Amino acid sequence: MPVGTSSRALENNNMIILALPLEIVSYIFRFLQASDLKCAALVCCQWSKASQDPILWRNVSVSLGTRRERFSHLLVDSLQRRCIQYLRFKHTTTAAQILQVCKQVGSNLKVLSLQGCRCVNDNLLEVLSKYCPNLVRLDLSRCRQLDVAKNGIWLDKCADVWRQLTVLDLNACKDISDVLVLKVADLMPNLVDFSISGCKGIGISTWHKMAKKLSSLKHLDISRSDVTDEVMLKFSQIPELRLKEINLTACKHLTDNGVVSLVKYQTSLEVVKLACVDITNTTLICIGKYIHSLRVLDLNSCRQLTDGALLTVNALLINLHSLNFYSCYQLSNSGLTKFLCWTQGTNHNVPLKVLVLNGCSSLSDELVLRFSTVLINLQELDLSSCLRVTDIGLSAITSSLIKLQSLRLSWCINITDSGLGGFVPAEQNLAHVHQSEKFKKGGKDTQSQVPKGIKNLEQLKLLDISHCTCITDEGLRSICQLKNLTTLNINMCTQVECMVT
Predict the structure, then answer these.
(1) Which of 32, 306, 330, 456 could form a disulfide with 36 if both were Cys (CB 3.0 to 4.6 A apart)?
(2) Cα dihedral: 235, 237, 243, 249 (round 10)
(3) Which stretches make up the F-box domain (predicted)?
(4) Architecture of domain 227-325
(5) Under CATH, domain 61-216 is a member of which superfamily?
(6) Angstrom distance (rounded) from CA 214 to CA 188
(7) Cα 244 versus chain centre, distance
(8) Residue 84's pLDDT is what?
């Protein structure tokens, strides 16, 4: 085709695209990510107008921050035209900047985050309650200047407007007291999610009244609090309480007694976070016995757990989506194998998407070979500091876990360029095939036995190989074939001499 004809055809196609009605263009834009939508808006005036359809921005969260005294009027006008509903201010934002934006767009806001903003005080919240009357979620976590202990005066000023709030986050606000918790329960009866991490000295009578008044409460975060076994025993038995999620991270006064009572009476729990809590096998066994719909289990740094508990809670894997065994170093390779791979040869499709085994020092290639053929839905895997994992284990991961989006291998010092490139030595490759055939029990997919290298993880977005000292520029060349990778950590990879492009 002559060059002139080709140019005219291309021009005609462009004219057809630009002639589409705004409604059609806007509908097409619904299939774009927010970042792509932003680029499309810069193409021409027509596409810019189409991109301002509020439907396109209904679920987009906007984060604002500036070093200037005020935000640009063009920016604020743009947010208003798009009817932005999710807004987050960075911690350096001033009260004047927050009021400037919320005065103009506040009537559309459903979710407002002021996390860590140093300017938040009673007066600012009172004004915001007038500008943002339709909020359903409010994040005031780490607002250290907000004096929540002053009899909750700010609640009295805002409660009439924000009575419909369903999510309130007061994590790490100083001096959260009985008075505040009771006022929240009285003035915001529709709360579903309540976070008061770091609360101290709250008595059982307050917890009892809160549970009765907040009948819709499903998610409770009291991490880093001073709640005791005695309080938890009485609190968990309140008839009105039907929790689905609880965060008890770093509750140093809790032991098996308190957590077991919670598990026995709150059997509808779906998310349990017990990181850094002094529990033993007793708690884990009770979780497996009483909670049958658990989706998220965080046992980070619960170092007293042993294989004895794992053998009795196999059924947990049927529903679990996220499991964290960070630094549970008493769990052995054989114990983890029996727990994670018990569904092998059955019809169960394990839904687990997030698995953290960071610091489980006994973990070896044998376990990785086993679970890589079973946990095929994994999207995030953390094997950091598992020093016995080598190129054999990495080959199993890259061959079978093709849905991975995040892979952390920090301090896996035996991983080399060969593992990243899929060039496992012959004797290791044979061992890989032997193990796969031995444990797969009749699986049909023989392709998973062939090492394919890191490039086979086409959906991978994050890769951490920091402190993997055997990796060189050759390994980076293999990594560069990952088209969707957005985050790469090669800190202390001492043999990497130059960045490969």
Answers:
(1) 32
(2) 40
(3) 14-60
(4) Alpha-Beta Horseshoe (3.80)
(5) Ribonuclease Inhibitor (3.80.10.10)
(6) 8
(7) 17
(8) 94
**Phi, then psi, of 154 in degrees rounded to 5:** -65, -30
φ, ψ at 476 (rounded to 5°): -65, -35
**Domain 332-424+451-500 indexed as CATH 3.80.10.10:** yes
- In this predicted model, what pLDDT tens digit does every residue of 42-63 receive, in sequence order? 888 888 888 889 999 988 999 9
Q: How many angstroms separate the Cα of 98 from the Cα of each of 65, 121, 169?
A: 10, 12, 18
* The two structure tokens encoding residue 437: 């055939």
Alpha-carbon 91 to chain mean position: 21
Type of residue at 405 = Q
Q: Tokens 């806001």 appear where?
A: 109
Q: Token pair of 376, please?
A: 């095929």
Determine the pLDDT at residue 6: 60
Domain boundaries, the chain: 19-56, 61-216, 227-325, 332-424+451-500
CA atoms within 13 A on the CB side of 60: 22
CA 418/CA 430 separation, integer angstroms: 15
DSSP H or E segment with residue 64:
strand 61-64
Indicate the angle between helix axes 426-440 and 391-400, nearest 10 degrees: 50
| Model pLDDT, residue 430 | 44
Q: Which residues, given as ranges, of the chain have pLDDT below 50?
A: 1, 3, 426, 430, 433-434, 436-449
CA distances from 162 to 110, 155, 179, 371 (A): 11, 9, 18, 48
Fold equal for 61-216 and 227-325: yes
User: CA–CA separation, 3 vs 153, rounded Å?
Assistant: 74
Among candidate residues 128, 132, 91, 125, the one with its CA nearest the CA of residue 108: 132
Residue type, position 324, single letter: N
Over residues 148-172, the pLDDT tens digits come to 655 567 788 888 888 999 999 999 8
Instruction: For the domain covering 19-56, report its CATH number.
Output: 1.20.1280
The whole-number pLDDT of residue 9 equals 59
Contact 108, 82 (CB under 8 A): no
pLDDT of residue 1: 43
Residue 158 near residue 184 (C-beta atoms within 8 A): no
The burial of 110, by beta-carbon neighbours within 10 Å (0-12 exposed, 13-18 middle, 19 or more buried), is given as: middle
Spatial neighbors of 113 by CB under 8 A, at least 6 apart, are 87, 88, 89, 139
